[in-house]
Amino acid sequence: MPKRRKKDYFCTVVSEDVKIALKVKPSLSRKPIYELFVQCDQLECQYVDRNQFPCPLRLDLFAEEIEKREERRRDRELESS
To answer: H or E segment at 69?
Structure first.
């Protein structure tokens, strides 16, 4: 598994630079659901793990990484077919 990249990002909620990373929310269902979200290093922030307004974090900040993950997933599916 490739190392997850962290990015510097200026957060308007806390008015400072933070580190952000693309994460997968854990699923408790029988059929695993892999839901992506963006997490910052400000654990005391009330919006941590919730990319909802007014939190400025969005998945499109990691669009390139998400596309690469999708390509790898499709390649694995083709190889196993």
So the answer is: helix 63-80
